[in-house]
Amino acid sequence: MNFTEHIHYSKEFENAVLGACLIEKDAFGRTFGIVDKECFYFDGNKIVYDAIAEMYSNGIPVDINTVIDFIVNRKGFLEIMGYNTTYYVCRITNSVVSSGHLEYHSYVLKRMWMERELIKLTHGGIELEGSVKEKMGQLNQAIQAINQGEYTKDWQDMSELVYGLMVHQDEMTKNGGMGIRTGIAHIDRHNGGFFPGQMIVIGARPSVGKSAFMGQMAIEMAKQGTGVGIISLEMSNNEIAARLSSLETESDFKTIFRNLYADENAKHKWYEQMRSVNNLPIYVSDKTRVTHTDIKAKASKLMHQHKGVGCIMIDYLQLISSEEQARNRTRENEVSQISRMCKLMAKDLGIPVIILCQLNRAVTQRKGEERYPHLSDLRESGSIEQDADVVMFLHRDWLLGGEYVKDEFGNTTENRADLVVRKWRNGISNFKIPMIFDGPRMKFTLGQQPVNGVNKIAPEVDYQGDNPF
Which residues contact 463 (CB under 8 A, 6 or more apart)? Predict the structure, then answer.
C-alpha cells in the first residue's frame, strides 16, 4: 500500500505528540480519546504510545526514564526498529517545541490515520473473512470506525453552553416549545413530546397492544413531517404494513392482511383511502437476529439516505441479539449492555429512540392499584429504567381476568386500557390516561370512564394536582 509522507503520515507530528507525553506528566490525558496506537504509522512509535497508555491506565508515572524501563523490562523490547530502546525514546523528544498545540497535533494524526484507512478500504487492503454477509459486516464496522474518528471537543465553557442553550430556545420558539409530538394530546401539552437524545421505553405484557400503539405514534409523527424508522424484530413487513393501514383506514386488520374484502368495491375503497398514507415518511426493516451495532448502522444509513428522519422505533428490546455470547455473561448483563447502547445511540444520532419492552409476570399477580405496572416490572434488567428518559406502560384489566373482566358498575373492560406514565425526565410523571383499544383496527383512542354506570369521556387529568396513584 503506497502512502505519501505529510498526507498519510508524518514522523514530525508523531514525535511531537509522543515527545510531549514523555516530557509533561499531564500531556497523555490530553491526547486520550483523540488518538490511539493505531493512529501512529511507525511501528516503533506504536510501541512507545502503547506503553505510555498502559502505564497511564495503571497509575504508573510517565516520563522518559520510566517509559524506557517499562518497554525494556515489562515489554521485553531491548531494541526498537533497529535502535537501542533508550536512544530511540530519547530521540523522540527532539521534535518537541511546545505542548501548546498538542490537541491539534493529535487531531492531525487522527486525520492521517483516517486517510490511510480509506485507502485500505477502497484498494483492498483490509482482509475480509467468512461469508459474504460476514464480509459486509466487517466492511461496515471498518466504515463506522473511520466515521467515528472525527475530533470532538470534550469540554465546553459556560459561554459555549449558554450559546447552545440560546440556539435551542430559538428552535423551541419556532416549534411552540414542542419536540416531536406523540399524538397523545395530554402528554404533548404537558411534557412537550419527545426530544433528541431521549430513550423512550414503552412496556407491556404480550397482546396488550404495544406494537399497535407504536404504529399509531409513527403515523402521527410522519403526518407532522418527521421521518420514522421502524425496526421490527417480531413482525414481517406485510404485518406492519397491514397494521398501519388498519389504523389509517379504519378497516379491520384481519380483512386487510388476509384479503377478506366483501367485494371489489370494498377493496377499491381501501385503495383510495391508502393514497393519503403512501407518501408518509415511514421506513421499515424486519430483519431478525439484529445486534445493537446493526441497529445503529441501520439508523445511520437511513438518516443519511432520508434527511428528514427524526425518530427510530424498535420492536422490541428483548429480541435484540447480544454482540457476543460470553460464557459467564448473564442475560441481565446482556440486556443492560443493549439498553445502555440504545441510550448512547439516541445521543450520538441526536434523535429520540423508542423501544418496546416486555414486562415480567409479577405484574399479573397484583391486585388493586398495585396491578398497574411499575418500573421494577421491566423484564430482565433494572438498567432499562435507569437508562430511559421516559417509561410508559400499557395496561388492560381485561387480560388479568377474574374480577377485572368487569368494572364496579358491571361494564365489560374488554376494550378498556390505561396508559401509565411512570418516568419522564424533566417532565411530569406518575399519572395514567384512560384509553379505549379497538382490537380489530389496532387503534387506541382517548378513553371513556363509566360514571354511575354511564360511559362518559374521561375528564382532563389534573397533572398539577395530587398524584393519581
Answer: 186, 190, 428, 431
